[in-house]
Design brief:
The chain is of the alpha+beta class and 263 residues long. It has 8 helices and 4 strands; from the N terminus they run E-H-E-E-H-E-H-H-H-H-H-H.
Length: 263
C-alpha cells in the first residue's frame, strides 16, 4: 500500500474537496482520501501507480503538486457511523434554523435574516448531499449536486431581486430586536454544530470542511447582529439590505461551485 501527498493551493472550501472527490471517484486503486483544507493538503492511500491519480487532480487546475509518495501500512480505522451521526445533527440544526430565520425574517422585514436562512438551507443541501451520496455512483452524485446547485442559485437570485425591490421601494424599517434575538439563536446553533464536529474527532470525509462552513456561518450571524445595531442607531434599512446582499452573494458563489462540481 502507498500514500501520496498532494499540495493543492486552490483547495480552500468544501466545494473544492467535493470536486476532487468526484474527480477521483472510480479510480480503483484509491482506498482512502484524507483532506486537510487549512493546510491545502490531500493524502491518498492507494495501490499500484500514482500517475492516474495525479493527472486527474491536475485536470481540475487547482494548482496542485505531488509532494511525496511512500509505502505505508494502512488499515481503515475511521468510524463512518460517528461521521454520519455528526452530519445528521448539523443538518437538522441548519434546517431548523433555516425555517426559524426565514419566517422571522419576513415577519420582521429583515433581509439579513432571510439571507442567512437561505445560507443555512444551502449548508443543509451540502450536508444532505454528503450523506445521501456516500457510497453512491458518480452519476447519482453529479445529478444531486446539479439539482442542489440550481436550487441554491435560484434562491440567491430571488433574494437579490427582493433586495432590489426593497431598495427601490424603501420599505419598512427592520425590527432590529428580532434580528438580534434570532441571530443570537442561530449563533448558538452554529457553535453547537462546531462542538459536535470537534467531538467527532476525525479528519475523514467532510468533517474539517464542515467546520469551515460552520465557522463562516458564525461570521454571517455576527454580521446580521452588527447590521441590527446599525439599523437601530441610523434608523435606516440600508445596513440590513447590505448584509443581506453580501450573504446572498456568498450563497450564489457556493451554487456556482456546486454546479462546476456537477459537470
Amino acid at each position: 500500500m502507498k500514500k501520496s501527498t498532494f499540495k493543492i493551493i486552490k483547495m480552500d472550501c468544501p466545494s473544492e474537496e467535493q470536486m476532487i472527490r468526484m474527480k477521483l471517484d472510480g479510480i480503483a486503486q484509491i482506498k482512502e482520501l484524507t483532506f486537510d483544507i487549512e493546510g491545502r493538503l490531500l493524502e491518498v492511500i492507494h495501490t499500484d501507480g500514482v500517475d492516474d491519480i495525479e493527472s486527474s487532480i491536475d485536470e481540475l487546475n487547482f494548482n496542485s503538486t505531488r509532494v511525496d509518495t511512500s509505502a505505508t501500512e494502512w488499515t481503515s480505522s475511521k468510524d463512518k457511523g460517528i461521521q454520519k451521526k455528526a452530519l445528521w445533527i448539523i443538518l437538522i440544526i441548519n434546517f431548523g434554523l433555516f425555517v426559524v430565520e426565514l419566517v422571522t425574517g419576513f415577519i420582521s422585514n429583515s433581509m439579513g435574516l432571510v439571507a442567512d436562512s437561505i445560507d443555512m438551507l444551502a449548508d443543509s443541501l451540502v450536508y444532505g448531499l454528503s450523506l445521501y451520496a456516500v457510497g453512491g455512483l458518480l452519476a447519482r452524485k453529479k445529478k444531486i449536486a446539479k439539482i442542489s446547485g440550481y436550487f441554491q442559485l435560484t434562491l440567491a437570485v430571488l433574494g437579490f431581486a427582493e433586495v432590489i425591490r426593497r431598495v427601490l421601494g424603501q420599505g419598512d424599517l427592520p425590527v432590529f430586536q428580532t434580528m438580534i434575538v434570532i441571530s443570537i439563536l442561530a449563533l448558538i446553533g452554529n457553535v453547537a454544530s462546531l462542538l459536535v464536529l470537534q467531538r467527532a474527532k476525525t479528519d475523514e470525509v467532510h468533517m474539517k470542511a464542515s467546520m469551515i462552513f460552520t465557522s463562516n456561518d458564525i461570521i454571517a450571524n455576527l454580521g446580521v447582529i452588527l447590521a441590527a445595531v446599525i439599523v437601530y442607531y441610523t434608523q435606516s434599512s440600508i445596513p440590513d439590505l447590505a448584509i443581506g446582499s453580501l450573504v446572498f452573494f456568498l450563497v450564489a458563489k457556493g451554487a456556482f461551485r456546486i454546479l462546476k462540481l456537477a459537470k
